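Blinded run. Sample ID left blank on purpose so nobody reads anything into the name before looking at the predicted structure. Input follows.
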Amino acid sequence: MTDPLVEAARTRWLPRFLAQGVPLADATGTLDRIGRWPDWLDAWTATGDVHEELARVAGGQGRRRTAGEAYVRAALCYHFAKFTWLEDLGKYRAATDRSVAALQAGLRLLDPTFERLEIPFDRDRIVANLRRPPGHARAPFVILVPGLDSTKEELTAWERSFLDRGVATVALDGPGQGEAGCLNRIRPDYEVAVGALLDALARRDDLDRRRIGISGLGMGGYYAIRAAAFEPRITAVGVVGGAYEFARMPDLVRRKFMHGAQLDDADEASRYAARFSLEGVTGRVRQPLLVIHGKHDAVMRWEDAERTALAAPRGEFVLYPEGNTVCFSVAERYRPYLADWIAERA
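Blinded prediction complete.
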């Protein structure tokens, strides 16, 4: 009998794996090898190891692009090895570190503009990957905010949509996210982290600080809207999987939330989750706001996403009737639309 957690992950996240850049054969082949949830991390790590070895071989042959692309695929596999898997926190942390290192190795080979940013924050730091479009001396930029179980290592395919349109990207691991999540727990006032990031970027001459977009996926949509409401330096905000509140939490989502919030008690976690609400917040968003949602989102109801858009003075709502959770099943449709929308308004 199939492990229900494995089956739930397969059903919900296969479109996500493909949209974010995992090859179809790798995604299905890895999933087919997993019989029990405890085996998840090892199976995905093994797939990542295949690509990391391909990268080493190509690098030794002087094939920089081939090596860089293989490192990016390895980073994705190491990320998906642990994105919702919390059975062994030592292995979870090791997979996080391997994902970070593989992506850095890949981007250094593929993108001469890539920079890693480390910004002191609270008890630790926040970390971001900055990439700039070639040929733009002073480009507008968009802050890309991961969701509850995503990190900056998952966002390279999404970054490309903006870079191709002349918009620099700043993919952020904020409190409780990715490598920034070791000491700082997730927090509802995400605008504090965004403000720290913008303060650090204010000293740069290669970014247009008058044109700053922000975009988030899933729970990152809540973070992006919240940041825009309290951070006037942001000029446009567009989110996918727009959350108004977090009333529905499937088992894997609840586990991840409790881990990110550093809480062991389910009742306490529910009370903390109630603080992640846009009640009284969305009306403060004076910037143009785009909310994109899938009608079949398993975590966030499309009616709540529409409510979020309508509560903003300049809000727009786009519903994809065939879209799944965070619209990964229609990524090829929403990504260019969102990137054009932000490029035109930021």
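Unblinding after everyone has recorded impressions. Residues 89-110 form the longest helix (22 residues).
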